[in-house]
């Protein structure tokens, strides 16, 4: 079968790569149609072809400066021509199936989605868009797909409320580059692209009540991080935080995981997480908020602690239990390994 996977702005290169490579191993002819990823190298394709058809000029001009304001303007200018280029490439490939991973601008994407000729599937990583203009067209846009996939039962319910039928397939775990020794110590890890909705400020507040812990924050700030830096100083925990504010390449993730007793995801909202998939792949216990599929996966396998969102006190208690209570780290690490075995 000829399969085209579409991730227009390369939002999730590891996920795209894992899916494309797995389909290729099953004997399918797979082409990944994407855009430039400006925050580091993408995985080397194994068994499939990767083509950059979206925003080629933006990629060439702004790879050294992905935060430049002019880049956003050029993205807007390039978006619809890129969509036409995508349709042309799909016509040439004549795939038997088109699997779309992201719809970054639903109000624009509907123009090309409704022109897809092959059967199509959407994995709705962003279950309900946050922008009002995108939400307004979302149910109708999803109706153009033959199948909609989500990663949590909660997401199935959310889309059902909009009149959209979806099927849950758990988010896969990303395979570790190498096996690590069991977790130990008192180091908490927060990593990935830094966005306000990921709740780093909550973790900094919680750190006050986890006095024996050290926190490593590793990731590229997409939202301003200065308020969180100031908060850490105000609360007197700045000396226990190691700030590594840059994109973390894959080869450095191993070292981060090796030094972490647990990975913390205090997200305010999100349906699924590549950070969670990575942490579990390395057998690391996690503390997550009960949003989207995060809590579902952790509870199912006993891979750590689940707390309510926006609750710094509960977050602190969960971290203390993992770090200080006898046997908790080992039990959660065992749950993470079980999840990895089932979902990789």
Instruction: Measure the end-to-end span.
Output: 23 Å
> What portion of residues belong to β-strands?
15-25%
Mean pLDDT: 92
Uncertain runs with pLDDT below 50, 5 residues or more? none
Taking the sheet with the most strands, its summary is:
7 strands, parallel
- Share of helical residues: 40-55%
Overall structural domain count:
2
Using the alpha-carbon principal axes, give the shape: globular
Here the CATH topology of the largest domain equals: Rossmann fold
Class computed from helices, strands and strand pairing: alpha/beta
**What's the CATH H-level superfamily name of the largest domain?**
Glycogen Phosphorylase B
Strand order of the largest sheet: 3-2-1-4-5-6-7
Order of helix and strand elements from N to C terminus:
EHEEHHEHEHEHEEHEHEHEHEHEHH
What's the number of helices? 13
CATH class of the largest domain: Alpha Beta
Which CATH-level-2 architecture of the largest domain? 3-Layer(aba) Sandwich
Number of strands: 13
Walk me through this protein's architecture.
- By secondary structure, the chain is an alpha/beta fold.
- The chain has two domains: 2-168, Rossmann fold, CATH 3.40.50.2000; 187-343, 3-Layer(aba) Sandwich (Rossmann fold), CATH 3.40.50.
- It has helices at 13-25, 56-62, 69-93, 106-113, 132-142, 153-161, 200-207, 226-235, 250-259, 274-281, 294-301, 312-324, 328-343, and strands at 2-7, 29-34, 49-52, 97-100, 120-123, 147-150, 167-168, 187-191, 214-218, 241-244, 262-265, 286-289, 304-307.
- The strands form two sheets. Strands 3-2-1-4-5-6-7 form a seven-stranded parallel sheet, sandwiched between helices. A six-stranded parallel sheet has the order 10-9-8-11-12-13, with helices on both faces.
- Strand 11, helix 10 (274-281) and strand 12 form a beta-alpha-beta unit.
- Helix 3 (69-93) runs parallel beside helix 4 (106-113), helix 7 (200-207) packs parallel to helix 8 (226-235) and helix 11 crosses helix 13 (328-343).
- The radius of gyration is 20 Å and the shape is globular.
- The model has no long low-confidence stretch (mean pLDDT 92).
């Amino acid at each position: 079968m000829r399969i085209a996977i579409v991730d227009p702005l390369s939002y999730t290169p590891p996920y795209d790569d894992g899916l494309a490579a797995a389909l290729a191993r099953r004997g399918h002819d797979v082409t990944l149609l994407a855009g430039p990823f400006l925050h580091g190298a993408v995985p080397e394709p194994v068994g499939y072809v990767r083509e950059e058809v979206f925003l080629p000029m933006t990629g060439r001009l702004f790879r050294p400066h992905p935060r430049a304001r002019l880049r956003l303007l050029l993205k807007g200018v390039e978006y619809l021509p890129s969509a036409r280029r995508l349709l042309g490439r799909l016509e040439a490939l004549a795939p038997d199936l088109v699997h779309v991973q992201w719809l970054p601008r639903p109000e624009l994407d509907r123009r090309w989605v409704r022109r897809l000729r092959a059967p199509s599937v959407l994995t709705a990583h962003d279950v309900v868009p946050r922008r009002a203009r995108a939400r307004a067209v979302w149910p109708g846009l999803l109706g153009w797909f033959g199948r909609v996939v989500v990663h949590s039962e909660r997401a199935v319910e959310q889309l059902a409320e909009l009149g959209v039928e979806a099927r849950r397939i758990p988010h896969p775990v990303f395979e570790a580059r190498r096996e690590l020794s069991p977790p130990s110590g008192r180091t908490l890890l927060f990593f990935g692209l830094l966005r306000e909705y990921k709740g780093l400020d909550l973790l900094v507040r919680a750190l006050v009540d986890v006095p024996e812990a050290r926190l490593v924050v590793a990731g590229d700030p997409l939202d301003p991080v200065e308020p969180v830096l100031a908060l850490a100083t105000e609360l007197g925990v700045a000396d226990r935080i190691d700030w590594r504010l840059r994109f973390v390449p894959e080869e450095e993730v191993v070292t981060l995981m090796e030094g972490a007793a647990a990975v913390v995801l205090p997200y305010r909202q999100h349906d699924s997480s590549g950070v969670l998939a990575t942490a579990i792949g390395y057998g690391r216990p996690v503390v997550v908020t009960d949003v989207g599929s995060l809590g579902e996966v952790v509870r199912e396998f006993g891979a750590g602690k689940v707390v309510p969102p926006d609750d710094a006190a509960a977050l602190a208690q969960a971290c203390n239990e993992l770090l200080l209570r006898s046997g908790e780290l080992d039990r959660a690490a065992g749950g993470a390994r079980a999840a990895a075995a089932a979902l990789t």
